[in-house]
Amino acid sequence: xxxxxxxxxxxxxxxxxxxxxxxxxxxxxxxxxxxxxxxxxxxxxxxxxxxxxxxxxxxxxxxxxxxxxxxxxxxxxxxxxxxxxxxxxxxxxxxxxxxxxxxxxxxxxxxxxxxxxxxxxxxx
Length: 124
Hints:
Blueprint: E1 14-17, E2 22-25, E3 27-34, H1 42-52, E4 55-58, E5 66-72, E6 77-84, E7 87-91, H2 98-112, E8 116-123
Antiparallel strand pairs: 1-2, 3-7, 3-8, 4-5, 5-6, 6-7
Helix pairs in contact: 1-2
């Protein structure tokens, strides 16, 4: 469809290592919001999509919101996924491709059977 989001990634964040941690310079994120409320709870929907596969994922962070590190076995993409205020945000990592983000979006749409809006944010 002409209205389908492209998940174009204009610039990737750069990974920088220090002695203690990893820092990312720049940020590209896609925020997915269910339009008509038929998605149910976004948390359970995302858990269902991740559990169904083809994902390996984990929530190893002690944060006030759900943040997952996700690897798509089919597209070989890795990215972060967070949930806040009824939205799902896909955070691009240095090697993430549009195909992995698109696959996550398509699976969420299929599981929820509702329309979603997609907003891209780029901070360089």
